[in-house]
Design brief:
Helices cover 53% and strands 5% of the residues. It is mostly helical. The chain starts with 6 loop residues before the first helix and ends in a 12-residue tail after the last helix.
Length: 414
């Protein structure tokens, strides 16, 4: 594919002039845009490999690494669709399939997917900070179902919209794809709707005082995206054939993808940089903030042992949180009926080495751990769901279940 001003390109420009269209030839400015953005996305995919490799690093895990990776992939698909729709290359042969490149790649799996996943991510933060719940179960199903339903409705409209020609059609005279005016309104309306929902969610998160609140990042994102959407909407209706003008198509493509990449890195840079250069130190700082804000349940993080369940108790007299956390093996949690030796307090002792709890008589002093019934739990931890990473013991009915385990207390410090 040539970016030089060839005789074929001269013929295309001449035919466009005969049709009353001023057409700028495809040239090295378009090639520069493709090279710059391709290099940018190559770097992004290298960073994406680093993100996936370190996906279990808690500060990165809290950023929803697979969701952010999917957003980056959708941005690249959006870029591929942009190259065709905005005529940065000669739209011939397989590239002339405008429905595939413009509807499916640029909009459905591109711009809409980026917008919908960003909104879902904001909704996940809404569940954590305002609903005091981890983003799991019904919260996941509802958000994804709504996103998929909107995409399906859009696709049906794209294929059934009435008109003399398809909503996205190929103009053979100037070798470019074009969208009808009603379909442009549908596309822009869909994107505006999704980002307005995103803005409403983040508006509700504005007063969260937690160190993990991302309202600043999402405020910047909404401002940038609304500015970009307004610019795109004006371009689409004031200059309906803007891909024929080099300055407009280059400006629109660079603004769209540079802003999208800036927002992605604005969210992820701090965690990825510290993971690479300050891994252990930043992890300690991050966990201190997490427990200070009381979000260990929502982020499903244990302070020391990932196979443990964290329980924050409250003194019944002072009604203040204890600084020391009570760590229980996951097999000892009351909502688990079956004890799993793999998650017991010691993975190095076989079941034969464990003393029989029936050998201890009631009169005999025992080193078995017993729950303090006088203490009550934080009211926020009273309600637990099956499979949650946090569990509570709030009544004496837990005694028969706990009594079967030999759980020695650590020696008292003198």
């Amino acid at each position: 594919m040539s970016f030089a001003f060839t005789p074929e390109e001269q013929t295309r420009v001449t035919l466009a002039q005969l049709g009353g269209i001023k057409l700028d030839p495809i040239g090295y400015a378009d090639l520069s845009v493709i090279v710059v953005l391709s290099c940018l996305y190559f770097f992004n995919f290298v960073a994406l490999g680093f993100l996936i490799w370190n996906r279990n690093y808690p500060p990165l895990k809290s950023k929803y690494p697979f969701l952010m990776a999917t957003i980056m992939v959708a941005m690249f698909i959006y870029f591929l669709g942009d190259i065709v729709l905005k005529s940065h290359v000669h739209v011939r042969g397989i590239l002339s399939n405008c429905m595939a490149f413009c509807v499916w790649m640029r909009i459905v799996f591109g711009a809409y997917t980026v917008s919908a996943l960003t909104t879902i991510r904001s909704y996940a933060l809404f569940c954590i900070f305002l609903c005091n719940r981890a983003y799991r179960g019904k919260f996941v199903y509802y958000s994804w179902c709504i996103a998929v339903i909107l995409a399906v409705v859009f696709i049906i409209v794209a294929y059934t919209m009435p008109g003399s020609e398809p909503p996205v059609h190929y103009v053979s005279l100037i070798e470019m794809c074009s969208m009808s005016y009603p379909f442009r309104a549908v596309v822009q309306g869909l994107l505006w709707l999704v980002w307005i929902i995103n803005a409403v969610i983040n508006f509700k998160l504005r007063h969260i005082n937690s160190s993990f609140n991302e309202s600043l990042e999402m405020l910047v994102a909404c401002i940038c995206v609304f500015t970009l959407l307004a610019f795109n909407t004006i371009i689409l209706y004031v200059f309906p054939l803007y891909p024929t003008r080099t300055s407009l198509r280059v400006t629109e493509t660079l603004c769209s993808h540079l802003i999208a990449n800036f927002l992605w890195w604005f969210i992820m840079f701090k965690s990825m940089y510290n993971c690479a250069f300050r891994r252990q130190k930043y992890l300690g700082e991050w966990k201190d903030k997490l427990f200070k804000d009381g979000l260990q349940k929502q982020y499903q993080i244990s302070r020391t042992n990932p196979f443990s369940v964290t329980m924050m108790s409250v003194d019944s007299q002072s009604n203040e949180k204890h600084n020391q956390l009570v760590m229980l093996p996951r097999g000892m949690v009351t909502d688990h009926d079956i004890f799993d030796a793999r998650t017991s307090y010691s993975n190095h002792r076989s079941s034969q080495d464990l003393p029989n709890p029936h050998e201890f008589s009631p009169q005999e002093p025992s080193n078995l751990w017993r729950p303090d019934i006088k203490r009550t739990l934080n009211p926020e931890c009273q309600q637990t769901t099956n499979g949650s990473s946090s569990s509570t013991i709030n009544d004496s009915s837990a005694m028969p279940q706990l009594a079967q385990y030999n759980f020695p207390l650590p020696p008292k410090s003198t």
